[in-house]
Amino acid sequence: MAARRPLKGILSAIGDTPLVQMGCLVPGFDFRLFAKMERFNPGGSVKDRSALAMLQAKILDGGVRPGRTVVIESSSGNLAIGLAQICCYYGIDLICVVDAKTTTQNLAILRAYGARVELVTDRDPATGEYLPERIRRVRHLLNTLPNSYSPNQYANPRNPAAHENTMREIAEALDGQVDYLFAAAGTFGTLRGCVGYLRAQGMSTRVVAVDAVGSILFQPTPGRRLIPGHGAAIRPALLDPSLVDEVVHVTDLECIVACRTLTRQEGILAGGSSGATIAAVRKFAPCIPPGSTVVTIFPDGGDRYLDTIYSDAWVAENFGRDAVQLWQRPLIEDVAWC
Asked: pLDDT grade, residue 232 (50/70/90)?
């Protein structure tokens, strides 16, 4: 195997992440299962792709100037870290508007990159969620600070455009044989970009959106959600339900069980939305024809969830002491989706 050539700068390492075949995570079903491991981006998540696409273009056209422009963005963590890395690289000031669900690890990383953190602690009175308040804080800062710019991941077309490459990498690695794609839904950037590539190439891949129970992306009633990274409290401008073939909703507890199962069975310390995609595959498995090739996108790693998903104390506090050992026995029942 030929050695890789050196890259020019850390941002050149974004993309071209590994595609890994999983073992027997869904016993009793005959299909190949792969995971696109986005934690191997230098900022640790799939959001590096979005951050680079949204910010670098503005730098190149002069809309964002190092030393003069302040970048302001709302994020539960991963996009903020991607932006923080890029802003640090270019010498740009960054304000990240996060909320009380943002993990301590993510906050520490943001501060290590020199980002200013604006923490929203009050929930929106109408929805009971933090996201509307985060967006209001961003608007206030934009109106207050001169020479400020927000990439606005919820509406920026460069967000999904970045993920056409994500799908291209998957398709090329599997010689175009992708029967099902499972991806977590949030801003809808990853899903929209992947579908854009699939349609442009005329591929017949069925796309399954993985949403959180309590999210309002595909259902009207909001509910309690503890794990960030998938689902949303508002419908982003990028959302287009017609682009997906199926939607599977996953509870927080199903997500936790799937994450811990991935660690025990595959040696993969996965983030919350990664576990959600595996939980969704397990639910949807009866509908997948034998011999199919199934791909999931793992947005990040589990190192940023050590105080939540992988903490027995946190799981016991929020779901009861018995929930700590649920990963050892089947929790997710087969559902007749088809």
From this structure: confident
CB 178 within 8 A of CB 205: yes
| Annotated active-site residue in 36, 47, 58, 101 | 47
Average pLDDT rounded to a whole number, residues 119-134: 88
pLDDT (0 to 100) of residue 328: 57
Instruction: Return the bridge partners of 21, or none.
Output: 34
Q: Kindly report the CATH number that applies to the domain delimited by 47-149.
A: 3.40.50.1100
CATH code for the structural domain at 10-40+163-323: 3.40.50.1100
Q: What is the DSSP string of 233-253?
A: SS--TT--GGG-SEEEEE-HH
Distance CA(300)–CA(42), nearest Å, equals 11
Would 10-40+163-323 and 47-149 be classified into the same CATH topology? yes
Cβ contacts of 334 within 8 Å, gap of 6 or more = 282, 283, 285, 286
Task: Based on the residue annotation, tell me whether 47 is a catalytic residue of this protein.
Answer: yes
Q: Which residues of 115-127 are buried (b: 16+ CB within 10 A; e: fewer)?
A: bebbebeebbeee
Measured in degrees and rounded to the nearest 5, phi and psi for residue 38 equal: -75, -10
| Tokens standing for residue 212 | 């959180």
At 338, is the pLDDT very low, low, confident or very high (cuts 50, 70, 90)? very low
